[in-house]
Amino acid sequence: MPRNALAGLAMLMLAVAPATAGPDEPVLRITGRIADGAAAFDLDALRALPATTLETSTVVTDGTHRFTGVLMRDFLDRLEAQGDHVTASALNDYAVDIPLADFRDYDVIIAYRMDGAALDRADKGPLWIVYPRDDHAALQDIRYDYRWVWQLSRLDVR
Ligand SMILES: Nc1nc2c(c(=O)[nH]1)N[C@H]1C(S)=C(S)[C@@H](COP(=O)(O)O)O[C@H]1N2
Ligand SMILES: [Mo]
User: For the domain that residue 24 is a member of, what is the CATH number?
Assistant: First the structure.
């Protein structure tokens, strides 16, 4: 294939792939009651924040896994979030309200890595809200299972 045809093909592929987040695509948008009204993070920006690792079982995987991500409490503090709950929404249009109290009471993370590998969009990624389920009996409950939003894409602070 001629060189300019290849270049054209590459441009076309970029143009028709809006659903695939590139390195600089925002993966998480935050709206509502935060200091600046709205914020967006790409994966590199999230990875640049202080990281927390936790090991836990989940209701949708076998055994325990090591999750790495940002502590939700610190993340929302950084954005000067105020309010009562956040509505967490996902790429598959799933949405659930999570009381902000969860993040004070528990070390909940926005995970971007599991067992050392980036979370794949086809497998709960690129972001997954992960609770330290194995550390607290109270978290081993369906009420909290709903809040483990995988394919997380938006937090609306209310
Ligand atoms: N993005 C997304 N996250 C989600 C859900 C969903 O449908 N989409 N289901 C929730 C529910 S109801 C539960 S019990 C857990 C596990 O759901 P699963 O078994 O469908 O993976 O994930 C939660 N997180
Ligand atoms: Mo569920």
Answer: 3.90.420.10
Per the listing, tokens 């000067």 go with 80
Q: Is 59 in the pocket of ligand 1 (CB under 6 A)?
A: yes
How many folded domains does the chain comprise? 1
Centre of ligand 2 from the C-alpha of residue 142, in Å: 7
Which string of DSSP letters, residue by residue, matches 63-104?
SEEEEEEEEHHHHHHHTT--SSEEEEEETTS-EEEEETHHHH
> Following DSSP, what letter does each residue of 11-67 receive, concatenated?
HHHHHT-TTS--TTSEEEEEEESSTTSEEEEEHHHHHTSPPEEEEEE-SSSSSEEEE
Bridge partner residues of 86 (DSSP): 98, 157
Indicate if ligand 1 lies below 6 Å from the C-beta of 151: yes
Q: Kindly report the CA angle at 23 between 42 and 32, in degrees rounded to 5?
A: 20
How does pLDDT run across 32-70, given as a tens digit for each residue? 999 999 999 999 999 999 999 999 999 999 999 999 999
